[in-house]
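Reader question, answered in our methods column.
A reader sent in the components of a multi-part assembly and asked whether the whole thing could be modeled at once rather than chain by chain. We filled in our standard form and ran it. Here is what they sent:
COMPLEX SIZE: two components
ENTRIES:
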Amino acid sequence: MITAHHYLAVAAMLFGIGLAGALTRRNSILVLMSIELMLNAANLNLVAFGRQAGWEQGSQAALWVMCAIAIAAAESGVGLALILAIYRHRRSAHLDESPPLKG
Amino acid sequence: MLRRLVHCALCWTLSMAGVAGLYILAGAEFLGLAQLIVYVGAVAILIVFAILLTQRRELLSIERLTAGSWVTGVAVAGLVAGCLWIGLAYTRGLGGAGGASGGPALETRELGELLMGRYVVAFEVAGLVLTVALIGAVILALPFEQPREASGRRADRPAAGEGWDARRQGGQGA
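And here is the structure of the entire assembly that came back:
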């Protein structure tokens, strides 16, 4: 039987993979993808606890997951536009070659 | 290990679909389908387009990690995930089950009533955030204007090597 433990274990692994990618990679698109993985791990935790409480009581968890998905979509849109703008200045999408962000 | 960025993006899409499957398995069908639409349908396409627009041919493959960064990243991530795992192993009392294991599924009607009733402010703010993000992304992605257009001299495009600094100094000199 699948319990909340299993969901939380998967979420912990997902978070670890995302953290490793965000820490080691230099390509900004890969870092963005890793951050999305970590966000999904958090959402998976919320879903696990909503299921644990029974969805009649836990439907607020689903609400917060909806909000988190909306915020993540906005974040990835703005992040990719930023990557595009920086690439146009620098001809590179690597994080350690990004422009000096000063006025 | 995958060496091509596009393959990484496709595998990322696959893992997002897997998370959507886990949502559906937990009894939250609406969330799973929303995840599928947002991530597999929209964000994945966005990422693939960003890869195609920003990567030169020689950058399309991922650089190999140096040993130091490899060890550091895996150590930190393993530490965090291990701590989570240990905390999980010592937790008792999470035996309840819903969704596919026999419990009640998430009622979409109830979710909609919450969104339109008690939490309508959160709903509206999420819509506002998405609108602002849309406008901001369009403004950020607009073509870069050459700073010396008005001075009469034809601004030639800088070579691939020089970047932001050289163009800025040129703009100040004109």
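What stands out: Chain A is about 75% helix and 0% strand. The mean pLDDT of chain A is 86.
Send us your own complexes using the same form.
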